[in-house]
Amino acid sequence: MPRVRILESKLGKKAGAAPSNATSTPSAPTASMIQGRWDDSSRDLTDNGSGVLLASTPSLDERDKNHIGQHPALRDLTIMNTQSKVRLVPNGPPTELSNECFDGKVMLMIRTPDVDDLEHSGIHFDALCQELDLCDSAVQMSKYFAGKKRRFEFQFQIKLKKIPEGPLFLGCELEHAIKIGTLTKGLVGILLAMVRRINPGFHYAWGPTSAACTTTNPPGEYEKTHLSFPVEASMDRIVITKPNQTPPTLGEELMESNESVKRRRKIGAGAVDWNLQDTYTMCLWSAYCDWIKWKSLNVPGVTPFLLSRVTGTQPIYLSVYEITGIDPHEYRRRRGVPHYRKDLNVYTCLEFAHQYHTTGGLAEKLLGKSKTAGVISTEQSLPDTESLDDSDFETASRATV
Questions:
Q1: pTM score, two decimals?
Q2: Which of 82, 140, 224, 338 is most buried, with most CB under 10 Å away?
Q3: How buried is 294 (Cβ within 10 angstroms: 0-12 exposed, 13-18 middle, 19+ buried)?
């Protein structure tokens, strides 16, 4: 059965026809509808005035309202701003992302199944979008990913409120330590070696030991299970806009010269002149992590596998943090500097949770229980032939998990 039909059956919808309980054809949703601005005083989701939903404790139906006009597959994925407790909906308009460290916005762009359906089935693009009732921003995202290998792209545009004194890192972390078998750990080791080869300054830790958690150690003197990269080296594009210039538009391809990219990745921490006047527009993409499928895929020589084989049922956290007490030059000179929690100044942190593969975390606390039980084992047994040849391995892409 084609993937589109599977999605339609899940939604109780037949191709080319309205749902049986519908009385009229719904109008095309607007951007504000996507962000949840509907007039319903009984809802548990509230709008903070910026076009973003604040989660309280909605039912599944209310949660789905936030995805009106978006691809149905995105409903299983929940992305939370852990600092503001705001849920972010991918493939919609840019969302405000501001705190004591910076003012800015983020646009989360995720490849949806319709892009692959188009590439493999030859279905006419406009017909498929109409069949899925996709809004303008969702259609724009599908067109953006068409012809690209990347499974997601996250774009950020910020102005700093204070200049970082220590090195900045992009980290992918778990809240709790993980227990994995020898075979899985060997598989992960291959991935880590590959990542280290193409990422200067790459750092990782398997999580705190029992000794690190004893009362004899100073508070916070431990590392969470995480992978991290210098922001300057990990971002696929960084565009610096002077005060008298217009910054790039989020949702479009960011342009940076090859010379600039190579320089950043060679130097790593300290390669960017962070200041309070310029606007920094950055993006991170990867062909190796599919958030909707909750899988690592497209890695040469490695069979696609569920992220939960490594992370268990934990949500995954993507954060940007500064290591205090050391400057970038000294950090590069010393090498092997631990990323203790007590030394981190977290700029922002996003939680990624999946309806069928994770439990706990902010998403479950605010949005309700997941459907993890009885699903992971079935999904892991499904055949998956999606992979790229070695020649398709792009060192420009960043493996984030």
A1: 0.74
A2: 224
A3: buried
